[in-house]
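Try this one yourself first.
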């Protein structure tokens, strides 16, 4: 069964294991990139960190279609970033580069990273600079581009990007990018996109695995308050897909699972 939420198709896709899930998501990702760029259109992609974020990109890197894509038409962004140095293992962009981006024939200017502390910017300045970079690619006066695909991880507490439950950042609608201090999850300083930017994406793909994510997934599907369960407020303009493994799907009703996507 596929449900519709505010004009966006919302579905749950289940794979037996994290490895098979990464392969399936990577296949869907490359299919979308190929379709988007085939006729010379630009594709903006928003990436996520975490173990599954890296696993999906690593699986994509092994696909033969990678060599046939015109990567000059693709721009990569991140839904959030840890405000640490570029070579810090906590850095989302470093993980993405190692898994896929450094293996692509892509212009350096198409990879849009958040500033690091050694770039000479404060946390607030890094957030403002990222907002300005997003605005450069907004169409028709918009303050950010529309992502063809926006990947989001989901924490056991239901957080997405660096939008954590019951914190002020998750309710902000008048900014594109925010600094985050005293994050409930280390490291404490981060930069995050806001809900309006994430939800302006054509497709929002939430990728989560493990039994510890089952409760968050159940609450998100049940329509919990996004202020308390941020994942519940993630909605793509065309489609919202929860890609999960069997362990995370423990509380998902069978009729909600889309076996064809």
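Now uncover the answer:
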């Amino acid at each position: 069964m596929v449900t519709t939420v505010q004009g966006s198709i919302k579905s749950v896709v289940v794979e037996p294991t994290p490895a098979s899930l990464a392969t399936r998501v990577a296949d869907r990702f490359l299919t979308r990139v190929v379709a988007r760029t085939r006729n010379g259109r630009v594709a903006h992609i928003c990436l996520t960190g975490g173990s599954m974020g890296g696993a999906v990109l690593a699986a994509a890197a092994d696909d033969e279609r990678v060599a046939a894509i015109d990567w000059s038409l693709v721009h990569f962004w991140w839904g959030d970033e840890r405000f640490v140095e570029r070579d810090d293992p906590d850095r989302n962009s470093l993980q993405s580069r190692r898994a896929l981006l450094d293996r692509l024939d892509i212009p350096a200017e198409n990879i849009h990273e958040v500033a690091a502390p050694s770039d000479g910017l404060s946390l607030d300045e890094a957030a403002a600079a990222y907002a300005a970079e997003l605005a450069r690619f907004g169409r028709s006066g918009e303050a950010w581009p529309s992502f063809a695909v926006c990947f989001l991880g989901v924490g056991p507490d239901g957080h997405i990007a660096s939008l954590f439950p019951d914190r002020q950042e998750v309710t902000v609608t008048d900014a594109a990018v925010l600094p985050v201090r005293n994050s409930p999850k280390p490291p404490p300083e981060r930069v995050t996109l806001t809900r309006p930017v994430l939800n302006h994406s054509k497709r929002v793909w939430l990728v989560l695995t493990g039994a510890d994510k089952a409760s968050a997934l159940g609450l998100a599907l049940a329509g919990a308050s996004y202020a308390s369960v941020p994942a519940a407020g993630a909605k793509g303009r065309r489609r919202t897909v929860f890609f999960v493994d069997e362990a995370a799907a423990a509380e998902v009703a069978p009729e909600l699972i889309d076996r064809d996507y």
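Discussion: The CA atoms of residues 147 and 229 lie 23 Å apart. The mean pLDDT is 94.
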